[in-house]
Amino acid sequence: MTRNPVQRLFDWKIRGIRWVEIIGFVCVGAMVFSVYVAKAAAARESAAIDQLERQIAENRQRVRLLRAEAARLEQPGRLEDLSRVAGLGPVTMSRQADEAALAGLQPVAPPVPATALATGDAPGPVTLPADMPVRGAQ
User: Fold this and answer.
1) Which residue, 7, 56, 68, 72, could crosslink 3 as a Cys pair with Cβ 3.0–4.6 Å?
2) Which stretches within 74-109 are classed as H helix?
């Protein structure tokens, strides 16, 4: 009786183990290895996602702190106090000029940087034109 080739393949043995069983064990081993590799890759991705979420939370906290600091720095009362200390005030009507008077205006000295004031490197006193009203003398 002649066996068909497929039946002979299933009956072929190597040292008492059928060839089909060896192929099955190799396939199961390959699947176990691929699941292990996929699980390790997923763990790495999960760690990276957790790190990014921590960075996002830290950045949100920084944004909240910076917004609170900006709100504190932009308070009108604080800005008024700073302008009084710097000698600034609202522009009076007598200090405003129209188009015709622009050509006759003299240039104003550039402002002195705060670092120059702190180190004493500030230039000498600034002289104002005689017809310009001075704040506090009104």
Assistant:
1) 7
2) 76-86
Tens of pLDDT along 34-58?
999 999 999 999 999 999 999 999 9
3-class SS of residue 74: coil
Please tell me whether residue 39 adopts helix, strand or coil conformation.
Answer: helix
Q: How far apart are the C-alpha atoms of 128 and 39, rounded to whole Å?
A: 78
Q: Which amino acid is at 124?
A: G
Contact 122, 116 (CB under 8 A): yes
Radius of gyration of the chain (CA): 42
How confident is the model over 8-23, as pLDDT tens digits?
766 777 777 777 788 8
DSSP 8-state symbol, 132: S
CA–CA gap between residue 63 and residue 51 (Å, rounded): 18
41-55, 58-72, 86-100 — which is least confidently predicted? 86-100
Any idea which residue has 């200390």 for tokens?
A: 85
